[in-house]
């Protein structure tokens, strides 16, 4: 099994204590998190360092950005083997209207969407909204 250090090195990311801590924080979460969530978890850390770490992870396909319609960008770790390619790697997200959490439904892939000639797809985001299993009690 690949360690976090090996994963970062394989993506040409310099291993630092803060990068390891942020990765571990994201790995422990079962839901997507906001930059504010990360800032609150590391309240003594420099905001710029936290932001740059998340952006570095996003650019290297370690995390992906989620627009769940709340107006606040959220982030979640990518699956192993993901390259966040809009042709092959997109999955559903579920946003709970009750607890306001957003989760990746990685087992539910978004089918390839063809756009008309002359249009260029840059991002595809599909969010299902409703009540999650924790809130529904089912």
Automatic annotation (TrEMBL):
Signal sequence coordinates? none
Q: Which UniProt keywords apply?
A: Metal-binding, Zinc
Q: Which residues cross the membrane?
A: none
Task: State its cofactor.
Answer: Zn(2+)
Q: Which Pfam families match?
A: FUR (PF01475)
| SUPFAM superfamilies named in the record | Winged helix' DNA-binding domain
| Annotated binding of Zn(2+), by residue | 96, 99, 132, 135
Quick one: a GO biological-process term for this protein? regulation of secondary metabolite biosynthetic process
Q: Name one GO molecular function term.
A: DNA-binding transcription factor activity
Q: Any binding details for the cofactor?
A: Binds 1 zinc ion per subunit.
Name it: Transcriptional regulator
Organism, scientific name:
Flavivirga aquatica
